[in-house]
Design brief:
By secondary structure, this protein is of the alpha+beta class. The protein folds into 2 domains: 40 residues, no CATH class; 73 residues, no CATH class. Helix content is 35%, strand content 26%. The protein has a 5-stranded antiparallel sheet with strand order 4-8-7-6-5. Strands 1-2-3 form a 3-stranded antiparallel sheet, with no helix packed on it. The structure holds zinc ion.
């Protein structure tokens, strides 16, 4: 039933070779999640229930990071949408405000963005429906048509 022991499995299991239990034909494994010992296959690292719990814990941490990034992206989009309305500009029309002002409004330059290069060789950041760039202490942006 068990395949040949892989060196990586042996190393991963707390750096020790699991002890073989002759009575059951299984190995004494220390669960990586709850840290208690159980009898299992040589390549097993978790109790089946603990494996699910461990996967959920990883997914939960990953989702929290993604949520934090999307919150930054949404906030930036909201700031630019509000400015677009407030300044009564049309789609495609370039809007220019002081960089200090965009920072004061809470624009997060570390939030996720894409990057494009236009035909005139200028580089623009893209978030949702907006293109923006910083030039000479000014924040330039426009709403994509
Ligand atoms: Zn466990």
């Amino acid at each position: 039933m068990d395949g040949p022991a892989k060196m990586s499995d042996l190393i991963n299991n707390m750096g020790m070779t699991p002890v073989f239990d002759k009575a059951t034909g299984k190995y004494k494994i220390t669960c990586k999640f709850c840290k208690t010992e159980f009898l299992g296959r040589l390549n097993q690292k978790y109790h089946p229930k603990c494996k699910i719990a461990a996967n959920n814990q990883i997914a939960s941490k990953n989702n929290a990071k993604i949520k934090s990034e999307t919150n930054g992206l949404k906030k930036n989009n909201r700031i630019l949408s509000d400015l677009l309305l407030k300044m009564d500009k049309s789609h495609g029309e370039l809007i220019q405000i002081a960089q200090n002002e965009i920072l004061r409004l809470g624009f997060d330059f570390k939030a996720p963005y894409r990057f494009i290069k236009k035909d005139d060789n200028t580089q623009w950041y893209v978030i949702g429906p907006f293109h923006y760039r910083v030039e000479n202490q000014f924040f330039l942006f426009y709403h994509i048509k």
